[in-house]
Amino acid sequence: MAHKKPGGAQWWIVAAFIGPAMLAILIVNVYPILYNFYMSLTNRNGPRRFPEGMYEVVGFDNYIRLLTQSEFYAVFGKTVLYAVICVFFFFVVGLSLALVLNHPAIKGKYFWRTLLILPWAVPTWITAMIWRFLFHGQFGPINQILRSLGLPAPNWLSDSFWAFVAITIVNIWMTFPFFMLILLGGLQAIPTDIYEAAEMDGASFWQGLFAITLPLLRPVALPAIILSLITTFQMFNTVWLMTRGGPRTLPGQPGATELLLIWAYNQGFAGQGQRFALVSAFAIVVFFFLLGLTLLYNRVTNVTKGAYE
Q1: How far apart are CA 78 and CA 164, in angstroms?
Q2: Distance between alpha carbon 79 and the CA centroid of its chain, in Å?
Q3: What is the spatial distance between Cα 220 and Cα 227, in angstroms, rounded to a whole number?
Q4: Tens-digit pLDDT profile for residues 78-128
Q5: Fewer Cβ close by (within 10 Å): the C or N end of the chain?
Q6: CB 171 within 8 A of CB 232
Q7: C-alpha angle 189/191/197, rounded to 5°?
Q8: CATH class of domain segment(s) 61-307
Q9: Treating both helix axes as pointing N-terminal to C-terminal, what angle do 160-188 and 124-134 enclose, rounded to 10 degrees?
């Protein structure tokens, strides 16, 4: 029986397989990006309403306006600080629990893994509502416990500093299970004879941690860190449900927890904000920033993949 050789005559078979996927990508991803870029070059700001397609192209005025705003850099810096602090504690808490669960003396490991993964499995809006109640200044259980111990009870969601601390705690609570699972898998892949040889040489726990564990966890830790930086940088719904970006100490200034996406939402949609072109320019700037982090993530992933070959 003669077999058909793949060639140009079968191009339609390939197109039938990848065509729907490519069409979906063009409609869902590429077209919105291109339209958003076009919008960022127009004067669609303020309360004026023109028929679709009748906006004037003003070039890069919105980008200049955005990048010369002190508010943008203040919010950007606050978001970077928030992401760095969160990811640091993601790693520390996740590694600590992974080390505990990986210890041979721990019994019921499957039960503890299931219990500790629950914060990651619960929908974020449910988590935000629960923690908003816990942080309530008057009736919240956290402040009631602090008062019973004779400790000061801060106004968590009404004070600028403590509101930032509160949203950081909630994000750590939601994300540490992800790091715990990733690092636990990495720990279980490390041969135990390495630790046995280190113990015979008189190495302490901390020496083994910094000389053996952390270097060998690098291939799994770095991708998780970069991916978490990307997702934390885009934090919106949890913070919005808890504080709506507040509290605000000065009128017209960003709130204490007004991260980048919340600031952009307030600029474009909340209150009197109707600066759609400015927000489109903001989206393009953030898009390229996150694209850089994504490329870094892909590069690190490829490097770590080669580390095992």
Answers
A1: 10
A2: 10
A3: 11
A4: 999 999 999 999 999 999 999 999 888 888 878 888 888 888 888 999 999
A5: N
A6: yes
A7: 155
A8: mainly alpha
A9: 130
